[in-house]
Write a structure and sequence with these properties.
Length: 201
């Protein structure tokens, strides 16, 4: 079984979602240089305290946007395939692992679920003042596109990554959005109120 180089990060990468990275540690400069030479991918796994998540996502290097004199580099990656870490190898400067790749079950979210998720997502993006691209509602993994566009709780993102049902992920997103929206609406209203009642000296 070929070994996948691992990049533990305090982040969760989803399939088809971009992730820019600044590479500065010597071991990861070595790892990324090898991936570039071999046109290979590496695995992004969430690190939490001294532990690593069991489920991650491979990252393909789309572009090297800047190279520094000391070997550091800025790269843009995009998520590709989910995997489960089976066995970690520690004989290189960077971690490598035997992994088991997996796909979704053959299910899809109901149109009304997709519509509800898109509506809630759009409202959150507006309230946060974020630029919202138009999500592709026909994308078979729309949930990843939506979740990847927002700074959601990492535990929640990790749970979504491991689910093999698009329907379950969309329902999870709806539940999450409905839970955070009331506080977000209140916060925005309070900020608007505070900004509108200032007095000149």
């Amino acid at each position: 079984m070929p070994l996948l180089p691992l990049f533990p990060l305090e982040a969760v990468l989803f399939p088809d979602t971009p992730m820019p990275l600044h590479i500065f540690e010597p071991r990861y400069k070595e790892m990324i240089s090898e991936c570039l030479a071999d046109k290979g991918q590496f695995g992004v796994v969430r690190s939490k305290e001294n532990a690593m998540a069991e489920v991650g996502c491979t990252a393909e290097i789309i572009a090297v946007t800047k190279k520094y004199d000391d070997g550091r580099m800025d790269i843009v990656t995009e998520g590709r395939q989910r995997f489960r870490v089976m066995d970690v190898k520690r004989d290189r400067a960077f971690l490598q692992a035997e992994v088991d790749f997996f796909e979704d079950e053959l299910d899809s979210a109901l149109p009304e679920q997709v519509s509800r998720a898109l509506t809630l997502h759009g409202e959150i993006m507006r309230l946060m003042g974020a630029e919202a691209g138009v999500p592709d509602s026909d994308h078979p993994q729309l949930s990843f596109e939506l979740a990847g566009a927002l700074p959601l709780d990492l535990d929640f993102k990790q749970t979504l990554l491991g689910l093999r049902s698009e329907s379950e992920r969309v329902l999870g997103l709806i539940e999450y959005y409905e839970a955070v929206l009331p506080n977000l609406r209140r916060a925005v209203k309070a900020r608007q109120k505070a900004g509108g009642n200032g007095h000149a000296g």
